[in-house]
Design goal:
- It contains six helices and 18 strands.
- With 287 residues, it is of the alpha+beta class.
- Strand 6 and strand 7 form a beta hairpin.
């Protein structure tokens, strides 16, 4: 069976930066096991599989896989897949589409040269001590931002928000793989476990996403799902309206820019992230 596929770079205004994504079409007859094998073969942070396509109504259903597991929601795959559908698949390049992912429908729109998604309502889980992190990293107590809690947050995928006190601490961050893995398995509530370190300087936001996959310490170039969690976290703890750019991937040679536009009204979170997408390649995959 032959599957058409596209490769794009997400959350970047130039090629060969941002986060890579493979988008596979006509995947309705693939099993989850087959999708997982393909995602492991291509070995990007995530790959998506379009399992239903409604061109008449500009809707699609997708499944998202890392090289090791299926994701219920992930930002850069949703943004990148939406760009492919809007520009390569749907007629007349629509400005609005809907994607169904395992957590439910995601509204997508194109505005001012950016693809935007609106995230689900967040949940705020456990709060952790900064002393925990000094046990499996090179961070000292003075390296932590002390205004906001270290907390696990989810909008469909969960991440632990860890605020740092300087850009230097973020740049020089080192984690012990085995101790990090042990801590994540002990404390995080879901099978997808990641630490989102950030430094907020005025209206500038810098971040790094670290996680364990296939017994390796990994870093992600641009993490949309973690960005929706971080936006919710900042709306709750920092200020109830935000519009800024989250810079990620700088320390791994794939600079990325994730646009935030959010508002908290009462208990209702309006969380939007946006980014640019660069077309890289297309081809046929022999499944």
């Amino acid at each position: 069976m032959s599957l058409p596929f596209y490769i794009v770079d997400v959350f970047t205004d130039k090629k060969y930066a941002g986060n890579q994504l493979a988008v596979f079409l006509d995947a309705e007859n693939l099993s989850s096991e087959e999708m997982q094998k393909i995602a492991r073969e291509i070995n990007f942070a995530e790959s998506t599989f379009v399992t239903k396509l409604d061109k008449e109504n500009n809707k699609a259903e997708i499944k998202i896989f890392t090289p090791s597991q299926e994701m219920m929601f992930a930002g850069h795959p949703v943004i990148g897949t939406s760009w492919v559908l809007m520009n390569k698949i749907f007629d007349n390049s629509p400005d609005e589409i809907k994607l169904n992912v395992p957590i439910g429908p995601i509204a997508i729109h194109y505005k001012e040269d950016l693809i935007w998604l609106k995230a689900a309502q967040p949940k705020f889980w456990d709060i952790f001590s900064k002393e925990d992190f000094t046990l499996f990293s090179n961070l000292k107590n003075s390296d932590f931002e002390n205004q906001f809690p270290i907390q696990e947050v989810t909008t469909g995928s969960a991440f632990v928000m860890v605020g740092l006190s300087s850009k230097r601490a973020l740049e020089n961050l080192v984690l012990d793989k085995d101790k990090t893995n042990e801590w994540l398995k002990k404390h995080c509530k879901t099978s997808h476990q990641g630490l989102y370190f950030y430094y907020l300087e005025g209206e500038k936001l810098f971040s790094r996403l670290m996680y364990i996959e296939h017994n390796q310490l990994m870093e992600d170039a641009a993490t949309g799902s973690a960005s929706t969690c971080l936006q919710a976290y900042l709306l709750k703890n920092h200020k109830p309206e935000l519009e800024l750019i989250n810079f990620q991937g700088d320390y791994m040679g794939r600079p990325s820019q994730i646009h935030f536009k959010g508002k908290l009204t009462g208990n209702e979170f309006d969380i939007k992230i946006g980014g640019k997408v660069q077309f890289i390649a297309k081809g046929e995959w022999e499944a």
